[in-house]
Batch of 4 targets.
Target 1
Amino acid sequence: MAPRDPKFAPDAETQGTLYQTTSAGVLGVLVGGVYGAVGSAFAKEIPGTSSMTATASNLMKYAGLFGLGFAIYGGTRATVTGARGKLDAWSPIIAGAASGAVMGASSTKSPLGAAVMAGAFAVTATLAEMGSDPHYLFDFSQYDNKPIMLASSKQE
């Protein structure tokens, strides 16, 4: 299989920190907007406010929150990857912990809450990275043997 052409399929090594931070922030705003819209659809109406105002307020709140969290994660991941010179399991762990700590510190007054958020973001980021690449933690290219077939899929 030929290597990917960076013009058409950019990856973490060819993208700049600003690009990764911005694209992660935009993705976060979109995810937060959808989350806010869905949350508003199921929320109870508050007397004295229009449903449109409540929906817009909820949408903006979550879009900003998710956008900030995703941007912090994307920027930290790009910075860590650039500083270390490689993208491995530690990059999303460090970036997730950093973004979780910032989000936890801004949303709670307890240091324990910030630590819990940092841990939760680190675990979530690592699981998301693992799900996107089956060879993420282990490089199987060093082994010459073929993958083990399951008993039910054995060809006779």
Target 2
Amino acid sequence: MQNGMETAKYTRGRSREGELPKGRSLESRNTAAPLAAAPEMASRRAWLEDFRHMLSSEAIDFERLRTRCFQGCPDGEGIRATCWKILLGYLPPDTSSWEAVLESKRALYHQLVKETIINPHEDEESDSGEVVDHPLNPNPESSWNRFFVDNQVLLQIDHDTRRLYPDLSFFQQPTPYPRASYSAGMEALKKRVERSSLPSQRVGTTRMGIINMKSTAKYSSLEKYYLPLKEGEEAHWEVVERILFVHAKCNKGIGYVQVLIAQC
């Protein structure tokens, strides 16, 4: 009897399948989700507009920007990249000086690239045509010796950057701003440690005397999805490779560790 009363109370509190609660129409039920999403969309627009306003000011409020970024930063319109530059001290709070600062920083980076990436062929001959350096030179200060030492670090960097986020096609796509010196004939970093292999086949003979030849070449499952780059182009992962290589050369005490690739 008690179980029957409890069941009756339970079923009385529920509406039958397909019924709507009192005071609610079918139209109100269908529009509930869009109405609930409207305030969220409005707050997101206000959040994005707040970042636009902060970054367009003549003087950036550093503390306010840091607090807002701690709560989340927009991905689009280059806002995230600009915020990182400000928070890391790459850009000053005075927005009127940004253009001059960026030009100066880029010139400094290009100078670092020129100084750190060694081209040993430049020092092979003197002005008189005499051979002064060669790959077998035992002098530790020779350009060729430093070139081979650098390649040991570069080989590790190249191995990590080539497989950087393989699920994202971004890093395999060409960058709109390739290094200008590549078009002038300077060898790309990836060419210094690129490996080449001769094609080979496995030969087998069946009982019928039929010879089967099977290729032993192995390719990455992602290679077929990426088109080869044209002459003078470079992928985004090559830009990351160059940044990490320059950092390793300028910071001998740190060198290169794999955790640095996540910060790029």
Target 3
Amino acid sequence: SDPCSSGHWSDLPVDLLHRILHSLELPEALAVADVCKSWCCAAIAAGVPRSCTPWLMSWSDKPPHELEYDVLLNNCKWQCPMGCEFHDLVNGHKTYEVNLPQVAWVGASHGWLAAADNLSNLLLYNPFTFTTIPLPPITDLGCVEAVYDSEGSIVRYRLGKHKESDAKFLGVWFY
């Protein structure tokens, strides 16, 4: 018997399917999930969404970043996260809200959302797989230097020789 013809495609090892699925774009991964039940289970475990229905992303009704400003202490505090909502265009009654604490959403591309945290560092968030990837700190950019307080916490960033920005607000205009 030919050893190459004895196996079934549906019996591929799950770890191999995961590696394949993670290398595919969403349309191809959805096609793989439709091949058979075992591949569908592997796709779900790998975080492939179960539908390729288009979704509309919008900002939630909450204020983008409601700030409480204490004039006496000259201290800003983030009060609530900026949320975004995903609306199912086919089933109009389905809406999902995504909120990450202490972030401001700054962009989106290829299914990923980009956010700046309370120190203006970037992170990527995939709302379909719930994966969060922190990117290198803003201080890795040659033009940005952290300014610390007496307790060692970052309070400002220095951009070049003359411009300084509060650590919490740099990400709002820098990105």
Target 4
Amino acid sequence: ECIGHRRSCKEDRNGCCKLYTCNCWYPTPDDQWCKCLL
């Protein structure tokens, strides 16, 4: 499992999530967080 700050799920394709399912939630209007799960 990998958790990281991302501006969007699409951008995270270049990060740790690229082989996993990316679930995003929005702690603030200006930020998104991705949690990558197997």
